[in-house]
């Protein structure tokens, strides 16, 4: 097919009329622009990758950056990026110029998104769904998969929110569960072969359906239109069954088992505009088996797979040299749990001593932080923010959620941090957890005061501060809490008001404790989108048509818009907003995602839910015998941890840049 023309000549004269025009121009350090027909022989496969949020949030996203690099390393694949445009740019694109509207474009070569073979979206949160609809509409791609033609790209969803893609089943053609590095290449090969054969329809109604059939059968890709959902008179799901021969009843997640063989990103993108993270991030391990019952990420990314200390060192070396970033983030769901985290921190600090490069652990378990980490993270004089997440205010509440951290653990940890030079820490909690009472939330105030008192005693200073940050709990699929009733927003808000008053009441501590929280209403909408079924797609569409955009941003989110959309879209149905959110489920109920296999045994999840109600705790299987969650035997995987006994040699590291971002 002929290469599509860049829309940049049409776009450039309009950029002065929008805010932050720099985010639409592309040309970042380490970005890639390839010829449209780049394959040395045969067919070129073309991907448009999107993180459905603004550039400042989407560009640092690790998942998109990894796939962008993995795909572009192949000489027969073109991969470009696109992000959600702000409402002012949306208006500009719709108004267009004398040639008409300007379509959704990539920032690399400013090619129209509709011209690509695959439009891949990575969803970290369900609140990005309406941004997807905006991008589809601007691109000229029919919103509903049933209305698309052979000229449209395959719309493919991935990321953590894709583990229940049913609410967007009408809008996406396919979904990938799990790790993307290997599967995007397998998808590309299926697309390449289908194109090389002349885009046949086979025995399917259209060529597009044949391509989707091949993906579903050979690539273990979920194609919602190939599964039929039936409902009972009371609104519950009766069954979900495949309708195309060869399509599996259950679709399994993909798991990457050798992270050392996939050291990406090697050349991360350096943004042109300010972004939410100005650092080079290295994922030091994937997965978590701590067993926190609220944590979908920990459940669906099992088993734990560590990167070796030598691979981490090489990635840091190449990434710092390629970007000039002055901060290296050691990422995972619980980075201090890496079997060699102390050695990694010491050796990297040795390697970059005297440079401008500092280390950070973006989020640290209370019971895993230690003096060694504190010293190494601050050795070059930089002290990035420290965030600890007790999650529950009382010890009873932490037992319910299986966050096995005591109050004394927290005091020891923050004392270590304050004694090592930090003057402020952030404590993260959730409100609205199952079995939670008013007293459980008010216990957060007592805990925060103890933290300040311990810091003052350890340092002899009065400038010790902590920030209490509260998020509303949302029950997630594939967790023991998937059956739980979500706490009503009015209850969450009342508890948060009481907590705020308790924090301010004691004048000896009130000014030393910051308090940040989100009210309960956005969490309820997230709960609707998280545990919804295909009928919720009508709610998403109605909210989008009524102006819903950037729902993860408080200045754009409207609870009234969403409740009105739910009332309209679900009118006449035996289900409503409360049915999807504040209602507890029973064991026998068919959940919308039961046919999507994360590897976790459903009976084990139910047993853990029952254990939660009794405040029973489960150990981390990295250090204890297997407790039969089901992942390793079901997925053919295993836990991969060290220690390796190896160390980094700072003398062999490449010189680092002496100035950077």
Characterise the protein shown here:
The chain is α/β, with parallel strands linked by helices and 661 residues long. Strands 2-1-3-4-5 form a 5-stranded parallel sheet. A 4-stranded parallel sheet has the order 14-15-16-17. A 3-stranded parallel sheet has the order 9-12-13, with helices on one face.
- The overall pLDDT average reads 94
Low confidence ranges: 654-661
Number of helices: 21
Biggest sheet: strands side by side, in what order? Answer: 2-1-3-4-5
Report the strand count: 18
Question: How would you briefly describe this protein structure?
Answer:
The chain has 661 residues and is of the alpha/beta class. It has 21 helices and 18 strands. Helix content is 33%, strand content 13%.
List the helices and strands and how they pair.
Blueprint: H1 8-11, E1 45-51, H2 55-58, H3 62-72, E2 77-83, H4 87-95, E3 118-122, H5 129-139, E4 154-158, E5 174-175, H6 181-196, H7 207-218, E6 227-231, E7 237-242, E8 251-252, E9 280-283, E10 285-286, H8 296-300, E11 305-306, H9 309-323, E12 327-331, H10 341-351, E13 358-360, H11 371-377, E14 387-391, H12 395-400, H13 407-419, E15 424-431, H14 438-459, E16 465-472, H15 489-505, E17 513-517, H16 520-530, H17 536-545, H18 559-569, H19 577-581, E18 596-597, H20 602-613, H21 631-635
Parallel strand pairs: 1-2, 1-3, 3-4, 4-5, 8-18, 9-12, 12-13, 14-15, 15-16, 16-17
Antiparallel strand pairs: 6-7, 10-11
Helix pairs in contact: 5-17, 6-7, 9-10, 10-11, 13-14, 14-15, 15-16, 17-18
